[in-house]
Amino acid sequence: MPAVDPITAVSDLATTIVQRIWPDKTQAEQQQLAAVLAMVQGQLQINQAEAQSSDPLQHWRGGMGWVCVAGYAWNFVLQPLLNAGTAMFGHPLNMTPLDLSELSTLTLGMLGLGGLHVAERIKGAS
User: Fold this and answer.
1) Is CB count within 10 Å lower at the N or C end of the chain?
2) In a shared domain, residues 7 and 40
3) Residue 12: CB partners within 8 Å, gap ≥ 6?
4) Whether residue 82 is found in the same domain as residue 30
5) Which DSSP string corresponds to the chain?
6) How far, in Å, CA of 21 to CA of 99, rounded?
7) Ramachandran region, residue 98 (left: φ > 0; alpha: ψ -120 to 50; beta: rest)
């Protein structure tokens, strides 16, 4: 209900203007914290639903993990064995290895070894 006397009305208007220009930091922080908490709770529900599955390929992280495993298996096991085996039988093949720069970036990121977490901590991000 608006104030009846002009002094209170002007005071209320000034308070409203000040709050819009300089919002209360604790209220803004609480709203931001509530939004982050809701996002984390949503991700936890997704993780819980995914964890109930027994299929390792159903999860995107598991699927990407298998792609990384296949790439490393080709580079360090299959390709050298195929090249050596075909050379032993007199029909050498020159199967080229994969470029592992992008694959190792993906693997390190999935394993949390990319250093980004450390960089966030150094910069003060929580």
Assistant:
1) N
2) yes
3) 2, 3
4) no
5) ---SSHHHHHHHHHHHHHHHHS--HHHHHHHHHHHHHHHHHHHHHHHHHHHT---TTSSHHHHHHHHHHHHHHIIIIIHHHHHHHHHHTT----PPPP-HHHHHHHHHHHHT-SSHHHHHHHHT--
6) 54
7) beta
Q: How many residues make up the chain in this entry?
A: 126
Please state the domain count of the chain. Answer: 2
Tokens encoding 100: 């592992």
Q: How far is CA 8 from CA 4, 14, 16, in A?
A: 7, 10, 12
Q: What is the pTM of this model?
A: 0.46
Residues 123 and 67 in one domain: yes
Last residue of one domain, picked from the residues 52, 68, 95: 52
Task: Provide the residue range defining the domain that includes 93.
Answer: 56-126
33-87 confidence digits (pLDDT tens): 888 888 888 888 877 877 777 766 666 667 788 888 899 999 999 999 999 999 9
